[in-house]
Structures are given as structure tokens and as C-alpha cells.
Amino acid sequence: MGTFIFRRIIISLVIIIIITMIVFLCMRLLPGDPILIYMSGENLETLDPTSLAALRAKYGLDKPLPVQYINWIFNIIRGDFGTSIIRGQPVNSLLVQCFPITVHLGILAFLFGTMMGIFSGVICALRRGTWIDNVITLLANAGITMPTFWLGILLIYFFSLKLGWLPTSGYTSPFKDFWLSTRQIIMPVLCLSIGTIAGLCRLTRSSMLEVIRQDYVRTAWAKGLRERIIVVRHELKNGLIPIVTIMGMQVGMIFGGSVIIETIFNIPGVGRLTVSALFEQDYQIVQASVLIMGMIILLTNLLVDISYAWLDPRIRYS
Fold first, then answer.
1. Is the separation of the CB atoms in 98 and 269 below 8 Å?
2. 90: which DSSP letter?
3. Do 114 and 76 belong to one domain?
């Protein structure tokens, strides 16, 4: 196990380096100049070669691309993500303000989607062929094919504009106003978790149906064990390996989907910050956001692989 974890950590570091190279080069290949955008937003009259050269030197854009990349990597190692060109603030402070919001939405969406997906999948497997199975399976198929941005617009239209039950947009910290915060995050969390619910429901159902036919499950029934014990200890646990794999993938989809959802619901998280910085070609913010999201996804995949040994003792890593 120790060798496997060490090997995965090395592979993850290599992947992180590749991610940094890709995002660094992609931002530099975009047409336009962030310095020109900044100068145009500040004062068109000061747009002269001297000011441009001074700003490029200030943000290190006057150096060759390899030197810029190396400087950026060394600054990241020291915990410095640079300074936003457009906003003029340290990227660290911007991420500290926005990242807790994205994590708040992501954790709630992951927990809600996981619980609802597994629960509905177990119900479908235990009641296979009944009307409950047919209805939930139909909804799960619709949920997989439904675009999150379209669902978000529909929710805003019905629950905010027509019924007036929920706010159309915005975010409030639960420590400031818990009730308002809850009303504001219901629709974003539902949009972020709909794919997780649908995917886990279908996978849990198929995985449970395979496990139910195994001999050790029949033996458990023959021993007279209660249904709850058989379902939780024998059927669900032994069918969790493919489910855990999908759960790890859903983490990346949730944090990636936050870019769209935060933009639709006007939530000041990392997703909306990244979108606005991308249009403004604010290099430092986009690079830091993509790097952090990539590290979260890699860490999640590592934890998923390690969990296999706990779920199935037959699995051993060399």
C-alpha cells in the first residue's frame, strides 16, 4: 500500500506540472493583451509606450515565456499566486474570499447528490420492476441528459419569477443569515447535484442487482438476518467499489460545474471569478484557479483508490 501511495503521489505531481504548463501556455496564446485591457479601463489618455513598458515590468510580462513560467512556479511553491493585473489585488486574498463559497456549495451538492443517488438506487434495486423503480429510473435518465445551465434557468423562472419562493441570485454566508443563505443556495445546490444523483442512482441500481444474486447474500437470508443488515453490510458495501469511483469523478464535475452555476446565479465564488478573469485575460487568477481545482481532483482520485482496499479486502496494492 505504501508503495502504491508513493507512486500515485509522484504521478499526481507530474500531472500537476503538466496542468501548469497547459494553463500557462493557453493563457498566453489568447489574443489580446491584459495590460492594454487594464490601461483602457483605467484611462485611455495614459496609454503610451512608457506606461505599457512599466506595467509589463511590474507584472513580469516583459520577460521571456520560460522565465515567466519558472518565476510563477517558484512563487507558487512559496505560497504566492501573484497579483491580479485588472483588480490590482493579491490573488491569495481573492481566493480566500471566493474559495470558501465554492467549497460550501460543492460540499452541500456532493453530500446531497451522494445520499439521494445511493438511496434512490438502492430503492430501485430492492423494488425492481415496480412503479417506483420505473419512475425513479425515468427521472434518473432525464437527469443525466439535462444541461445544468438550462435547469438553472428553469428553476429561476418557476421558483423565483413565477412563484416568488426563492431569491433569483446572490449568496449570503450562513453565519450571517442562515435562513436567507439556505433559500439562496437551494437552486444552485440542486443544479450542481442533479448529475450526481442521476449517475449514482443508475450505477447503484445495477451494482446492487449484481450483488443480490451472489451466494453469500442468499446465505445471509438463509441465516435469518434482518433485511436492513443484509442490505447495508452485504449488498451495499460489496457493491460500493464502482459507486465510489463515480463519486470521485463527480467531485470534479461539481467543482467544474460551479463555473457555470455561479455565473447563472451570480454567486461570488471561484467559478465566477475565473470566468470574469478569463474574459479579462487576468493571467494570475485563471492560472491559480485551474491549478487549485486540478489539485482537488487529483487528491480525490487518490483517496478513491486508497478506499478500494477498505471496501474489498481482496484488493491489495504492491
1. yes
2. B
3. no
User: Where do we find the cell 457555470?
Assistant: 260
Residue 48 domain boundaries: 34-80
- How many domains would you assign to the chain? 2
Report yes or no on 11 lying in a domain. Answer: no
Note whether 296 and 105 are within 8 A (CB).
no
Q: b vs e for 217-238, b when ≥16 Cβ sit within 10 Å of the residue's Cβ?
A: beebeeeeeeeeebbeebbbeb
Contacting residues for 204 by C-beta, under 8 A, at least 6 apart: 117, 118, 120, 121, 122, 124, 125, 239, 243
Closest CA to 270 of 51, 7, 131, 81: 81
3-state helix vs strand vs coil in the chain, percent to 5: 80, 0, 20
* Same domain membership, residue 47 and residue 187: no
d(CA 258, CA 189): 10
Location of C-alpha cell 467499489: 241
Are 53 and 112 members of one domain? no
Are 42 and 131 in a shared domain? no
DSSP string for 5-47? HHHHHHHHHHHHHHHHHHHHHHHHHSSS-HHHHHHHHH-GGG-
pTM (2 d.p.): 0.75
Q: What is the pLDDT of residues 216-262, one digit of tens each?
A: 666 766 766 666 666 666 666 666 777 777 777 777 777 776 778 88
Query: Cα-flanking dihedrals φ and ψ of residue 146, to 5°?
Result: -85, 120
Q: Find the Cα–Cα–Cα–Cα dihedral 26, 31, 36, 41, rounded to 10°.
A: -90
pLDDT in tens, 183-218: 888 888 888 888 888 888 888 888 777 777 666 666
Q: Looking at the structure, tell me whether residues 150 and 50 fall in a common domain.
A: no
